[in-house]
Amino acid sequence: MKLIVTDDYDDMSRIASHHVLGYLTQNRRVNLAITAGRTPVKLYEDLISAIGGYDCYSHVHYYNFDEVAFKGQSREGVTISNLRKLFLSPAKIKETNIHKLTDDNFLDFDRQLQQDGGLDLMLMGLGSDGHFCGNIPGLTRFHHSVVKLPLEGNIAEFIALTEMNGDMQSVPDHYVTMGPMSVMAAKNLLLIVSGENKAWALAQVIEGEVTEQIPASVLKLHPSLLIIADSASAAQLSAESLQRYVQSPV
């Protein structure tokens, strides 16, 4: 595990985008799983400026790692819709380079990834409760691969409010996600973290025990994990952790 702590969100985004670009510029097929949400917004802006519309990046393929369908509707799910808005559409990514995880293919998704050569990099955010991807406390088991999990209670209400204009009728009773086993199979992991509301979770991931109650704690067992965090999200880390893990940004 390596950790880079930046002064602020903009620096975190810039350094993380440079790290991702290091993969995108390789002269071979590159498979990248990317995250939606607020944390990667500036990172995607930087990437769009760097690669948007250039044919020299046609070897890069993109995957979503979780999905919530719209119940009773034929439209694309919440995650891929957000990824299109944030990055895929403005970067002019070709449809043939977008590989969607859905309700229909989740049981075959790991096999398809293996056939495609595996994920070279997973770009993920960290939830304030310690979740990553769709792996949340109380539901996640470390042996899960790509899995269908129940969507109910506060999480369902949150999805309805933030993604479905408050319409609970559009919220399905489940979602699909790459579980810990599938995530840990990726060659490299990049966890980006920003804001004081993530400070507790980041401290638990780096300094706490590996437990399913903090699902992202398992990520530190990966042989190639890089965490890029701004100073606000790193505020609860001990001096010992900072001395042990912090790397100088390139």
UniProtKB/TrEMBL annotation:
Q: Which SUPFAM superfamilies match?
A: NagB/RpiA/CoA transferase-like
Q: Which UniProt keywords apply?
A: Isomerase
Organism per entry: Candidatus Pantoea varia
Question: What GO MF terms are annotated?
Answer: glucosamine-6-phosphate deaminase activity; isomerase activity
What's the name of the protein? 6-phosphogluconolactonase/Glucosamine-6-phosphate isomerase/deaminase
For this protein, the record's Gene3D superfamilies field holds: 3.40.50.1360
Glucosamine/galactosamine-6-phosphate isomerase domain location is: 24-220
List, alphabetically, the CDD domains matched.
GlcN6P_deaminase
Any GO BP annotation: N-acetylglucosamine metabolic process
Q: Which InterPro entries match?
A: Glc/Gal-6P_isomerase, GlcN6P_deaminase-like, Glucosamine6P_isomerase, Glucosamine6P_isomerase_CS, NagB/RpiA_transferase-like
**Top-level taxonomic group:** Bacteria
